User: Fold these one by one.
Assistant:
Number 1:
Amino acid sequence: MESAIITGTGIYEIPGFTFTEKIIDTAYGSARVNVGVKDGFELAFLARHGLEHTTPPHQINYRANIKALQILGVSRVLATNAVGSISREIPPMSLSLLTDFLDFTSGRAFSFFDGGDTGLAHTNMDEAYCPILRTRLLELAPEHELEIIPHSVYVATNGPRFETPAEIRMYDQLGGDVVGMTGVPEVVLARELGMHYASVAYSINWAAGLEEEMTFVGDEMAELKQLLSLLLVNTIKSIEVLDCRCNEAVMIMHQPQINP
Ligand code: HPA
């Protein structure tokens, strides 16, 4: 199957699909991927934290997840990320399209190219999120009754703790718009495997220090998340050819000797 959707906190189903869980073994560990078909359209669905939300951001096996999708034949991925809002232009309850990121994660396995037999490569990140998928998401949003803010810089933190107010002030000064714990290295790994990847962030709170007390959006967002899931399916379904350069992003300096 060609298409996959990866969801974050609070999205554990895709409307209209019934899935069967598959455990896919990879050289990096196993991944649980749900596979389903609707009206002849095959879709892989991965809930990053698990369907019971048991895996914290820093423990997600991002390499196994992305490799498992590749094993299934996936080459295009649409994702969602729950975030906190740093920019006043992107308040809680709004959706924003990720256009770039700042990586503040640490200690995560963030590459398939680890030297030696696994090869050495540098991956171009000048356009980390697929421009064709992004354009299509923005085009189809209005007919799903959704408004998507077209640009946002994602700050990836390690979690599982939230940030301090001083950290948020720093991220703001550096140009970060929204903050989350799971967007990186997922996008990087997808790109290393030549996949097309885009993500829509949904904000559930003002980031630390922006309000007297941190509060989180709850059930009020249920309908929005349903519409968003539907938008992801219809977007990924609607594109036949992805005429972009995502699959040329990897510059191999030393060819891998194994293909895990
Ligand atoms: N910080 C980090 N990750 C998050 C936040 C936040 O404020 N909200 C949702 N995910």
Note: The radius of gyration is 17 Å.
Number 2:
Amino acid sequence: MNHNTQDDRNQKNRKESADNTGKENRKSQNQKKHINVACIGNPNCGKTTLFNALTGSRLKVANWPGVTVERMEGETSYEDTDITIVDTPGIYSLTCYTIEEKVTRKCAMDDDIDAIINVVDASSLERNLYLTLQLLELGKPIVLALNMMDVVEERGMEIDMHRLPEMLGNIPVVPVSAARRTGLDILLHAVIHHCEEGMEDYILDYPTQIEEKIQTLEGMMQESYPDHSSARWHAIKILEDDEEVKKEHPMSVIHVADRSYEKEIIQCKYAYIEKVMKETLFNKSKKAASTDKIDRLLTHPVWGIPVFLLIMCFVFFLTFTVGDILKGVFETGLDAVSGGAAAILQGIGVSGWLESLIVEGIIAGVGGILTFIPNIFILFLALAILEDSGYMARVAYVMDSVMGKVGLSGKAFLPMILGFGCTVPAIMATRALETEHDRRKTMLVTPFMSCSARLPVYVLFSDMFFPDCAAVAAFSMYVVGMAIAILAALVINRLEKGKANDSLLIELPEYKRPNARTIRIYVWNKLKDYLTKAGTTIFIASIVIWFVLNFGFTGMVENPADSFGAGLGRLLVPVLAPAGLGMWQIGVALLSGISAKEVVVSSFAVLFGVANANSDAGMAAIVDNIHQLNPGFGPLNAYCLMLFCLLYVPCVATVATIKKESGSWKFTMKMMAFQIILAWAVSTVVFQVGSLFAG
Ligand code: GDP
Ligand code: MG
């Protein structure tokens, strides 16, 4: 992903020394050429899919906007040219409001970028062309990648490939399908050649009065900033009264740009787009009738939310049942490993403590977590299919009115849905929100969306204590999490005396058959993350837990109750007791769970020396142990433990991301305090009220 090679630095140096004929220079000095190309386009037009197809990367693709939040780089080559391709967040125009729009605009303007691949969704050309017209004004070499041609063909639409480039300043227009990987070579070929030939002058006909002003400003730009490469674009932006551009390139322009001409300029572009569409697009199809029909139910104002809950419920049912069937395989494997390791270690005569560390610490801690892979796999597979089919975007749409009422931007639900997978990317996705205030509020509630790391905790405790309705008990955590996220936002909104927020202007993508490659990349990335976590965080946490449970002030202890861990856990007992969690073992598990939520399970495994916590025997052993220590520990206590795990401080990785994204320790600390207090309060209320009924 990093292209800061020697070659590259050379090239930058060359750029500085060279003048406008720099490209010729580069060619003669260096046999293998190198260019930087940015993929820029609307959200959801397939930029990341194209990037992955061109570079062989595996970035996350999703059928909704706002997934790519940073510029990402990858390498490819074509003939004798090395190409660095940059993937950017989707934008609708070069006017910036959000962080991701700024990222993309900066990338488009970057002098390092030699050419732009403007990715457009050919099946909705009209909407996509607005950005294209703006990009053309930059004066950089642009190649139009007409993506999703498979969809265009399927729908029987026809695009005049001769007239379209003519109307767009004769830039190369290349039909491709990123998903089917067609047209990619032609695209690269066009990029390289177009890059060499440079940009033809492209003039959109503005009314004379505006055109004159543009030219005056352009002249002033060239005078004040002679090195500047996109003077015309800047002139237009100044005329649109773009604050940022005016700040970056201050000039006294008031005599020309006496007011904002933004409206006229926008109208002009749309009028031109209309003309282009008339001349180039035939058999324009309406939105597929089937999409409309399905949407009548799925985005229904009343039924939309229950349908969503039903679908999620079905997903968790699958996660449990199918996951459990697959689990058997892992169990046998783990038993063999753990038994084999013990035998080998005894055979070679290692000391007791080392055997205990390996078998009861590492294998129990890490191995136990690995047996949840089938569950995690099914969860991710289902989420990937829901995302890629276009359904998740509908969920955001359906939730929009709810979000507005609690003072969150409608866009906030997209990061929240990502939170079902992992909170870290979800927090990063809040960059799509417009104000810092909205971002922080969304960051505050996103961790309440149950991430996949919490799944093992739910699976284990609902299997152990709710044998008849494990899936329901676990699923309820997801519902409670969402409800609390929304309630928390509501309360904050009331406290701030905020008002309802703007509604979401999300465009609903068409439903489509999920793409096998996209799904594979998605699921594999998630599983890889999970395995990496098992090999790093959970591995280390298991060793630490083993240590604190096996050592005390007197050295190695026989009984864990004399260990450091027990001492630490006991400090928490009085606090946790009202929530029905008054056992030092739980205190230890919750503390260590901050490293990663799965570690709550690992620590029970290590605590009770259970090799495979996720097997029937393992669960029986844990329940037995808990009952011996605390005979009264029943389903209500287990439920409160699950609640606590859902709500208390998210894992360190999330906390670090929140700090990074908010840039404020104060905010991060306040948020952690809020979460701990909330977790305690909710589980205490549930336990106390529940005990009344049970008693
Ligand atoms: P981005 O937001 O521009 O990065 O778009 P993504 O790469 O995340 O893709 C958005 C959706 O469009 C995903 O569901 C892709 O699988 C799908 N997609 C991308 N390219 C094509 C294509 O050429 N044909 C079809 N049918 N779908 C595509
Ligand atoms: Mg993307």
Note: The beta strands are 33-41, 72-78, 81-87, 115-121, 142-147, 158-159, 173-175, 281-282, 551-552, 555-556.
